[in-house]
Amino acid sequence: MIRLERRPTPSRLWSGISPLVAVVLTMVAGGLMFAALGKDPFEALRTIFWDPIFGEFAWYFRGQLLIKAGPLILIAVGLAMGFRAGIWNIGAEGQYIVGALCGAAAGLAFYPAETRLIFPLMIVAGALGGFLWAMIPALLKVRFGTNEILVSLMLVYVAENLLASAAVGWLRNPESSGFPGSRNLSRWEASANLEIWADTGIHWGVVAAVVAVIFAQVMLTRHLMGFQIRLAGSAPRAARFAGVVPGRLVVVCLGLAGVLAGMAGLFEVTGPAGQISIDFASGYGFTAIIVAFLGRLNPLGIVAAGLLMALTYVGGDNAAGNLGLPAAAISAFQGMLLFFLLAIDVLTNFRVRMGRGVAA
Amino acid sequence: MANDDVSFTVARGGIHALLGENGAGKSTLVKTIYGLVKPDAGTMRLSGAPFAPEDPRAARTAGVAMVFQHFSLFEALSVAENVGLGMENPPGQRDLSRRIREVSQAYGLPLDPERLVGDLSAGERQRVEIVRCLLQDPKLLIMDEPTSVLTPQEVAILFATLRKLASEGTSILYISHKLEEIRALCDAATILRGGKVVGACDPRTTSAADMAEQMVGAAFKAPTSRGGAPGAPVLQVADLSLPPMSQFGTPLRQVSLTLRAGEVLGIGGVAGNGQDELLSALSGERLSTPGAVTLEGRDVSRLRPTERRRAGLLCAPEERLGHSAAPDMSLTENAAMTGADRKGMLRAGFLDWSAARGFAEDIIARFDVRTPGPHVAARSLSGGNLQKFVIGREVLQDPRVLVVNQPTWGVDAAAAAAIRQALLDLAAGGAGVIVISQDLDELLEISDRFAALNEGRLGEPVPTATLTMERIGLMLGGAHDLEAAS
């Protein structure tokens, strides 16, 4: 009989090592899955985790790693602020799409002007778009007490439809002779979000992610707003007593997440994606939720988690290409990571007792 | 060591008192009996049979029930659902509700099984716990600080309940700091200090002072009132009305009061008569209509908690864990929670954590908070120590007006005396103090004037010197649930 017994105080040890244990368990379970698919599990794991960093083509993959990790970290940091305060924004994907749409539209309005002022303007427009999209669930929650989980999630589907209509309609490239998709922003000098150093993968989105991590870390540990976020998440009633205005916190947390997600969308559409297209939404907004929790809602942890998650993407692509692993297997592999993390998390607050005992 | 070589015997049908200061080891001892803590050495026998419970379930099965000081209830569930969760084999909801009504009537503890626990006052929540125990038909009932939230009339009812249980053969282990109560109720007492038994006595024939001395190890200082003439009004409340916080809450109805500098105003009343609502209206957690709350001539009715604090109006709510303090945060963080503004910890929105730590250390030192240091989580402190910290945090911010709700609930005699003295000193320094409490002895001891809160209405304050227990009973009169159900 296995029993769970509540610990008197949360275990610091387990809180620290549970992400590592989760990664190891994911490798074991993933390896079994790959074996069941008829692939050599060791080769598959090596292709996913080792080759992109140390293999023959690492020079290429390392850049890809930062290109994937950048938006994940940027979005996850914003989400983590809300999650720390008990505000559950599940709709970062929507804020990411709308940020990209607004930023792209603001830039394309000036096409084909050639001035370096356009890119900063697009960043602001992207941030504003994400912010406004996030304000919909925020204000509905503050004003009418609606559930931000549902509203933010539903707005993802609205945003996806906006994206489709933009790609085939109001943002379509007039010179594309009927093909859907906007003008290529990464090939227009005024809007291109190019690598700052060639072949490093470091574009302005990666820089923004680093800035956001530092900003969030300082805010959480040093600033009154960060203290209020932690207080509201830890003891909501005490937070109100201390003077935290719950509505204001909802607006700040959702707004911040919206700004960062919107910027991530803008950096993506002007860089790696290059244009507004029907399949622009790639799920970064949802994966960032996993990244936020994998990083224990801690900005520095999120950096590590974002890089790890990017590795499973890049390595997964690599494995799909070289070993013929189905893409669904890679998705399942990523899902396992979150599953094991949440399962192992139980050990922070509970300990497992083996042996005699009555069923609970 | 929490307990060292402790021996005592509770007679069948006896009411046995367990006395001791905070940290004397009472909690550890009863947790051992209830199966929450395993002893390193020693034996227990229940009704003659060896008794070594693996866990609380085993203890309950053997016939031990316990009413905790901190309630273990789910706020989102009804009374009946909560009672059912604590039982080994709960009957159906309808049957359970009927039995709750029966037991609560038989023992004079009125309770509506359908109400949500979240809407109950502390006093009513305690009844849920007691009724839950009684439904288990226990051989030994452990009660930890049961009267802290009751009026004299309710205490009388509870005592009648306990005596009735004892006469039916149930043994009762009764933990309290209220020595007069123990003298009135218990027929034996074991006194603990520093984890050891330091004495045993028959409380019916031993004076309260004697027991207190054994408990503390030295005579403790009783608070002294100054009786100086009060100064100018510092806080005025005029026609304050507020709708209830929830469906079952109590609305405030045209509450008016004037608090003068240097005065302690005591507000008594049965739990659930608007105490929480009054505190939240004064703290700024809930805003009121303009002109309702005036601090030193300034209308603060529309100001939020932070702004009211800046203006000099400070509060300490009843519930320590989760309301006046954040349980999982450190004492340093809890010190910053309300002290950031007035203690100069803010520089352009950034918190100066070393200043916060200094403030926390100051509170710990000046209010004798027993803790390893300001880095520990608030939840690891005992009730009395955390309460000293919370009261100290507000007092040391030098408020113009301090409003406290149940300042000494569940706090041992020495700590309660220290807290009361701090409140008196604050008033002597020229601040106005409002003490909301269900402990009438406390109110009579420290307040200059006394008013009763009854169904959200505040009576006219009268000078405490003119009061008797009987008169107070009348002032609280009409308060619900006072007469024993029969």
From TrEMBL, chain A:
It is a multi-pass membrane protein. The chain crosses the membrane at residues 12-37, 57-82, 94-111, 117-140, 149-171, 201-220, 241-267, 273-293, 300-316, 328-347. GO terms for cellular component: plasma membrane. The keyword Iron does not apply. Keywords: Cell membrane, Membrane, Transmembrane, Transmembrane helix. Pfam families: BPD_transp_2. It is found in: Cell membrane. GO terms for molecular function: transmembrane transporter activity. This is Nucleoside ABC transporter membrane protein. It comes from Jannaschia pohangensis. The lineage of its organism: Bacteria, Pseudomonadati, Pseudomonadota, Alphaproteobacteria, Rhodobacterales.
